[in-house]
Design brief:
alpha+beta; binds adenosine-5'-triphosphate; about 575 residues; D-amino Acid Aminotransferase, Chain A, domain 1; 21 strands; elongated; 21 helices; OB fold (Dihydrolipoamide Acetyltransferase, E2P); eight-stranded mixed β-sheet; about 35% helix; six-stranded mixed β-sheet
């Protein structure tokens, strides 16, 4: 097929702003494209040279493009530059100049779409010293073989400025119309595209095999799968309406998502959330995956976290320092990482996309030998929203940003934000306008990140009628690392060997360390709910430490005040 056919389509597309019309123009055109050219045409309609994730970069400096236009048009570089500035578009400048080019410079022979595509790839693959000249020369040869209008689009493609308004979804719509006669079949193409985000492959499959070509469409190791995303809810309780069976609850780690592929030759490729290749940034992770995951080939997903010497998570900003091209080895030792594996998409020739999450998890556990570097995400299985909330608090205490609640029967919904995953983050918690002054009754020994200090405090309110302190909530969030570290010192003089006389606490809430009820802290919260676990009979949900108060224990928030706030 001649490149000029595509140029005609570019011209038609440029004239319309209507998405519908674009789809029709493309659908009509696709019908006329030979099946062996369709993948190239699909990429080129998007101004691309391959799948989005392949990110083929032409690497032509603007200066080299100007040089090539000058050479092809037989004018000076200064003239080209002047015209580019005037037109504000190098493509239009090239077109203007080539319209006037001397006939002697026009070689005979047509430019096929194949040659066009190959030469652009050659430009992309040329590197090293003198490569800008080589690239520019290839561009000249292309400019000499196109029409003036062709030069307009060629230059825009080369500069990554085609911007026709055509997106991947427009191409999928047009392919569905062209090859099945019905736009609604795009759903099938889109499903396949989510598993294999490559319009060239989708175009070739539908053109050569029709819809049945997608029947056995599956994960291909080395080709990223579009990532599944999580829905959100307004209230925590809504989650149990969306997932009506037991729930799998995992920590929501604040790191970088990765999809790791191991090919049959042992090579490991890492893809980011945006499907960029990030293998070179994490040579340590490549090594760990090769060492600790027992499978010949696999596709698995997890979150990369920066960790400290004890294996505790460090903030996202620390991990971001690993996003670099240079000094990678230095940063590998400076900022160690850990992978929390939370999903499995493929292993040893079998796609796990359609299998329920419980099966994917079971297999993941079998494949991973325990190490500090590759670990399976921590999780609980429960049907109680109270336990979900408790796990949420625990995850916050460990320094994570929340939880992801998952449907154990749910499949992996590639590229979809569906209800099989629901996130609940600390930022979602809406706070009551009133705060509470709580007496600290005791503390719980910290684990993980909070090892060596207290993990949470037990807060109580004052029952003025009986002159007693009743437990109201566990306070684990709102304390920064510094405040946490100094808790044992701050409370040292208040530690008592057993429960103080005026303090009432249910057995299941008993702290590891009791304090004489003297210190008062101000706490915010989201809601007051009935609770059999606390002697106050009610509890504060999502409590968050605000500050220490200079108040006596008897000046703390009272049972009466809490009741008043609940409208009783
Ligand atoms: P957010 O900014 O809330 O992360 P997002 O749109 O980037 O939003 P979401 O779909 O909301 O992504 O949340 C899923 C993200 O959470 C994943 O992309 C992943 O990086 C991260 N994550 C952390 N822990 C888990 C986990 N256990 N399971 C799934 N995703 C997790």
């Amino acid at each position: 097929m001649n490149f000029e056919k595509l140029v005609e389509i570019y011209m038609q597309l440029e004239k319309t702003a209507s998405g519908n019309e674009m789809r029709q123009i493309l659908a009509e055109f696709f019908k006329s494209v030979p099946k062996d050219d369709i993948h190239i045409v699909a990429y080129l309609t998007l101004g691309k040279l391959g799948a989005e994730y392949e990110d083929v970069v032409l690497g032509l400096a603007e200066k080299s493009v100007v040089k090539a236009i000058a050479k092809a048009a037989g004018v000076s570089e200064a003239k080209v530059k002047e015209l580019v500035d005037k037109r504000g578009d190098a493509g239009l400048a090239a077109e203007d100049l080539l319209k006037k080019k001397p006939m002697t410079l026009v070689p005979v022979g047509e430019l096929t779409i194949h040659e066009f595509f190959e030469k652009l790839h050659k430009i992309a693959n040329t590197d090293g010293s003198g490569s800008q000249d080589t690239k520019a020369n290839i561009l000249v040869s292309l400019l000499q073989k196109t029409s003036a209008a062709g030069a307009r689009y060629l230059i825009r493609i080369v500069l990554g400025q085609l911007r026709m308004g055509v997106a991947e979804m427009t191409v999928l719509d047009a392919l569905a119309i062209a090859y099945t006669g019905e736009k609604k079949n795009k759903e099938i193409l889109e499903y396949a595209y989510n598993i294999s985000p490559d319009v060239g492959i989708i175009a070739e499959t539908i053109a050569k095999n029709g819809l049945k070509g997608f029947d056995h469409f599956s994960v291909q190791v080395g080709r990223p799968v579009k990532m599944m995303l999580a829905q959100r809810v307004e209230e925590l309780e809504e989650i149990s309406k969306k997932i009506e069976c037991e729930m799998i609850v995992e920590g929501k780690y604040d790191g970088e998502r990765v999809q790791a592929h191991k090919l049959s030759d042992g090579k490991i490729i890492l893809f980011s959330r945006r499907l960029d290749t990030i293998t070179d940034q994490f040579p340590d992770l490549v090594e760990y995956l090769g060492k600790y995951v027992k499978a010949k080939t696999f596709v698995l997903e997890g979150e990369i976290l920066a960790i400290d010497a004890e294996g505790n998570p460090l903030p996202f900003q620390t991990l971001m320092q690993r996003r670099r091209k240079y000094d990678v080895a230095e940063y590998v030792s400076k900022i160690p990482i850990q992978l929390k594996v939370f999903d499995l998409l493929y292993v040893d020739g079998v796609s796990y996309l359609d299998k329920p999450l419980v099966d994917r998890e079971k297999k993941t556990k079998q494949m991973i030998s325990s190490s500090g570097q590759v670990v399976v995400a921590e999780r609980i299985v429960t049907s109680s929203i109270d336990e979900v909330e408790e796990f949420f608090q625990k995850m916050l205490e460990r320094g994570y940003e929340g939880i992801i609640v998952k449907n154990p029967q749910g499949e992996y919904q590639a590229g979809t934000r569906g209800w099989n995953w629901i996130k609940w983050k600390k930022d979602y918690v809406k706070e009551l306008s009133d705060t509470f002054d709580l007496v600290v009754l005791g503390a719980y020994i910290g684990r993980g990140r909070r090892h060596g200090t207290y993990g949470a405090l037990l807060g109580g309110i004052y029952d003025e009628k009986n002159d007693e302190f009743l437990s109201f909530c566990k306070i684990g969030t709102g304390l920064n690392d510094e405040m946490l570290a100094e808790l044992p010192t701050r409370f040292k003089e208040y530690v008592v060997g057993k429960k103080p006389a005026r303090v009432k606490v249910e057995k299941i809430m008993e702290p590891d360390v009791w304090f004489s009820p003297e210190i008062v802290v101000e706490v915010s919260g989201a809601e007051i709910t009935q609770s059999p676990s606390h002697t106050a009979g009610v509890a504060l949900r999502f409590p968050r430490f605000l500050r220490y108060r200079e108040k006596s224990a008897e000046q703390a928030t009272t049972v009466k005040e809490v009741k008043g706030m609940m409208g009783k």
